[in-house]
Amino acid sequence: MCATLLPGNAVSVAAADGEDITITMVESLTSAERTAIIREIADKYEEEHPNITIEIISPPLENADNKITQMLMSGSGCDIVEARDLTITQYVNNQWIQPMDSYLDAWEEKDTLTEAAQQAIYNTGDAAYMMPYGFLWRGLYVHTDWLEEAGIETPSTWQEIYDAGVALTDTDANRYGFAFRGATLGYMYADTVIWSWLGTDQLASTDAGYFLKDGNGATIFTLPETKEALEFYKSLFTDCSPADSIAWGFAEMVQGFIGGTAAMLIQDPEVISSCEADLEEGTWDLVPFPTGPSGQAVFPNGFSGWSMTSFTEHPDEVADFILYLSNAENNTYFCKNYATIPIHTTAAEMDSYFEESHFSIYMDMANDGDTYRTCSAPMKYNAFAAYKSEVDTMYQKWLTDEITTDELLTWLDDYWTQAYADEGEKF
């Protein structure tokens, strides 16, 4: 009987004969609220599989990826890791995670996966190294009461964000127009401004947004529009953001908005639940991502998911739990409570939340592909691993006038020109 069990749809031989098994999973995008949701689903799984214990490790958000890397390098201590669009290539290249194709092929719910989910699953090539749990598109959070008090219309472009931000900034009252992200991953906000200035039509690929179309490795960092976009981006910091936002990461920028320091915030849908919990209804809103001079609003197609380590001793059970987390019922519940875009086409049928309330703006954006585009840095390059460890420091030096705009652009151009020379075309 045990030999006929389909992988991914049933518990394996070890589970069948009653062996006690502990599956350890490590989070990257850690928050107490999200961990509680995962814990709730894991508890349900444990009830259905009495011999299996799910242990969740939740490192502090700012160094979670470093913690995961250390565990993967050691080759022990975890069975499931949270992989991200920023880290999945590194994990695959180092053979720290293993494909789950045989489990996915036998999974009865694979046919309702969205196109975006399929693209994420095979992001690194032909093998399924990750099962995404949702997508994080960005939108503009605004304090509508601030805007109404000042007689300002809700911004829909980057220039309107700047104009409103300057008008709303009152340093004596500790009120600022914009929640700037100057610390970890701050460079990704500069990327979105640059891409919204250029438009995706100039790019070699939306998976390699630093290279020009038909450019034979030429980068976007030599264009005058890129310099203009960067100088605009810096003005958001200098003219309508608090000085200490040079050190703001995710938690600080969100608190800056919710706590009443900043009027506007660009962030993912996961912030919806925090706003609903801490802000009075009618005093805030979530509106579509702003457009640039190109007429496009370009942002990362952020995604994360669960991967099975290459050294797990219980691959069948691990895959079974990953697919349990990922079934339509559990994923819809998770995405509603964590506020991410679901991976199943049936989600809106299962819960009207995804077409109502503040979340509905993401459905509107998805239906206007001419305006709302996604793009990413060249994450498939081996050079990206070192780049993301250096680039935030370079941007901070530029924002604090230690280096000039031209010096930053030269560094960016040199880095990716060399990466192309070393690794060739990976898009």
Describe this structure in words.
- The protein is of the alpha/beta class and 427 residues long.
- 43% of the residues lie in helices and 13% in strands.
- The protein has 18 helices and twelve strands.
- The chain has helices at 13-16, 32-48, 64-74, 88-93, 101-105, 115-121, 144-150, 158-168, 187-198, 224-240, 250-258, 271-278, 315-326, 328-338, 347-350, 360-366, 383-399, 405-423; strands spanning 21-26, 52-57, 80-84, 97-98, 131-136, 139-142, 176-178, 262-267, 285-287, 297-299, 302-309, 372-374.
- The strands form three sheets. Strands 1, 2, 3, 4, 5 and 11 form a six-stranded mixed sheet that branches. A four-stranded mixed sheet has the order 7-8-6-9.
- Strand 1, helix 2 and strand 2 form a beta-alpha-beta unit.
- Helix 2 (32-48) packs antiparallel against helix 14, helix 9 packs across helix 10 and helix 17 (383-399) runs antiparallel to helix 18 (405-423).
- It is globular, with a radius of gyration of 22 Å.
- Mean pLDDT is 92; it is low at 1-16.
